[in-house]
Design brief:
This protein is of the alpha/beta class and 221 residues long. Helices cover 40% and strands 17% of the residues. It has one domain: Aldolase class I (TIM Barrel), CATH 3.20.20.70.
């Protein structure tokens, strides 16, 4: 794996600065945006209940959808995504239908993603969270393939909430080898140091979901 060297500014521009604690308040979201602007991040990622919020810093806003289980009817996921877009989000991070995936129901998985995509048309960015730590290598590959077929812009490793674990360089490399340069790959879940972040990028990630952004960038919180 090739070593990656990035300046803080370059690394920050690959980060979705994330706040998904269920108890997060509007004040917490405002503080997230202020910190994100200070650190120079690409975007902030929040729960849809925190939208819309006033962000004087002009950062891009991502919202999660079907979070964290993915066990929602497609129509509900699509409606949640559409409301988030109408409330100021420009990117949606949706959780794949994990039950259908583990049962081998790949047509259902693809249809679920396609339904959300139909309610979040371009230029909105759709990222599909596949919960890679829960999957076999073969399932990771197939999940990436159906995500691409359904019109996703990114595949993403993890919610950070599943007990199976978060991102791994192995999963990121496998996801990148599957989607090539056609889709983005977002590594998220358990990335708490600069070394971990750079390893994910070296493996093929071009976006990172971080809550420990200040620590990763070596800045005071």
């Amino acid at each position: 794996m090739t070593e990656v060297t990035l300046t803080n500014a370059e690394l920050a521009q690959m980060i979705d600065h994330t706040l998904l604690k269920p108890e997060a308040t509007a004040a917490d979201a405002d503080a997230l945006a202020a910190e994100g602007a200070r650190l120079g991040v690409y975007s902030v990622c929040v729960s849809p209940s925190l939208l819309p919020f006033f962000d004087p810093h002009g950062l891009k806003v991502a919202a999660v959808c079907g979070f964290p289980s993915g066990a929602h009817p497609s129509a509900i996921k699509a409606a949640e995504a559409a409301v988030a877009i109408d409330s100021g989000a420009s990117e949606i991070d949706m959780v794949i239908d994990l039950g259908a995936l583990k049962a081998g129901g790949w047509e259902r998985v693809e249809a679920d993603i396609a339904t959300v995509r139909s309610f979040t048309p371009s230029p909105a960015v759709l990222k599909v969270i596949i919960e890679s730590a829960l999957l076999t290598d073969e399932e990771i590959v197939r999940a990436c393939q159906v995500s691409e077929a359904a019109g996703a812009d990114f595949v993403k490793t993890s919610t950070g909430f599943h007990p199976a674990g978060g991102a791994s360089t192995h999963a990121v490399a496998l996801m990148r080898s599957t989607v090539g340069d056609r889709l983005g790959v977002k590594a998220s879940g358990g990335i708490r140091t600069r070394e971990q972040a750079l390893a994910m990028i070296a493996a093929g990630a071009n976006r990172l979901g971080l809550s420990a952004t200040a620590a990763v960038l070596g800045e005071d919180a």
